[in-house]
Design brief:
three-stranded antiparallel beta sheet; 11 strands; 11 helices; 45% helix; Aminoglycoside 3'-phosphotransferase, Chain: A, domain 2; 2 domains; 319 residues; alpha+beta; Phosphorylase Kinase, domain 1
């Protein structure tokens, strides 16, 4: 157990943890919360190094431990996750001190990158996902932070749960029209028989716009915020990323190149996956259970309405 006074996750605790691990002075601490980590701090040291300090509340201990578990599993396979310099999973506020990858998230970097560089980054992601796909699978489907507790017996059941859960969130929040979600569900129900042929392949499921870090030269620095995988059709990963790009008003070339370089097709099922991802984004609007609610402004409602209408038309033309 730590001997310092633990008053809670804040800049002072982050500085104390970083100082104890690096044995260097602290020049700056910047609170940089993400959707997954509310208490994440970018710490600059007096010797010009920088580290990331992730701190969890007591109830977030499992999430911190899961990040360490997946880092330990994937880094030796060549997946470029940040190196863990220190971990403390037993203190009141568990923590990880990790390497800070140079650069910025892909979603911020993409508009500045030339098309060939976007293609190269997509190819690198396709390569990394092919490595992940060779991990063991027990034939279960869906997202899990525990490879021995993957929840579903079929890929259709995993997607159906995502759709129904997020449709319920849309209805409960009363911020967006659920009609589009109902339409995606109807098309999904008609396609269920086509989803039974897929093997339970593991893949990194989070949108690459949020997990991929690109340096100032446009090269991949690494991946961040991975604390679980999904098992099913790996095309769901570029589908989720394509939806994130649409929602940000960015070119979808990265996701399309990733799909093509993986040897996969943009058929009706792929666009159905993008539709499921759209319903998931809509379901996030108004959520406050993790302190990271997405606003449902007029502009957001109009944009998501146009996107889901566009996807429904694509699904109808290709499925």
């Amino acid at each position: 157990m730590r001997t310092i006074l633990e008053v809670g996750p804040n800049e002072f605790l982050a500085a104390s943890i970083a100082e104890g691990v690096t044995h260097a002075g602290i020049s700056a601490v910047r609170h940089s919360p993400t959707r997954r980590y509310r208490h994440l701090y970018d710490v600059s040291l007096t010797d010009r190094r920088r580290v990331i300090v992730r701190i969890g509340l007591p109830e977030e201990r499992d999430a911190i431990a899961q990040t360490a578990f997946w880092t330990d599993l994937l880094r030796p396979l060549g997946i470029p996750l940040p190196e863990i310099f220190a971990r403390d999973l037993d203190s009141l506020f568990p923590s990880l001190v990790t390497e800070r990858l140079p650069g910025s998230r892909l979603g911020r970097a993409l508009p500045k990158l030339p098309r060939p560089m976007v293609g190269a980054l997509a190819g690198t992601m396709a390569d990394h996902q092919s490595v992940v796909a060779r991990l063991p699978s027990d034939g279960k489907f869906g997202w899990s932070s525990d490879p021995e507790a993957v929840p579903h017996d079929s890929w259709a059941a995993a997607l159906d749960e995502t759709l129904r859960l997020n449709t319920a969130r849309i209805i409960d929040a009363e911020l967006l029209d659920p009609a589009g979600a109902y339409e995606i569900q109807r098309r999904f129900d008609r396609a269920i028989s086509r989803l039974g042929a897929f093997s339970a392949l593991p893949f990194i499921a989070e949108p690459a716009t949020a997990t991929v870090v690109v340096n100032d030269s446009g090269q991949l620095s690494g991946l961040v915020d991975i604390n679980g995988l999904c098992w099913g059709d790996p095309r769901m990963a570029p589908a989720v990323t394509l939806m994130a790009l649409l929602n940000a008003g960015l070119s979808t070339a990265y996701a399309e190149s990733w799909l093509a370089l993986s040897g996969q097709n943009r058929d009706g099922l792929f666009w159905l996956y993008v539709g499921v991802a759209c319903v998931q984004v809509m379901g996030e609007c108004g959520r406050t259970d993790q302190g990271t609610a997405t606003g449902a402004t007029v502009a957001n409602r109009r944009r998501l309405g146009k996107i889901i209408a566009y996807l429904i038309d694509l699904i109808d033309r290709t499925l």
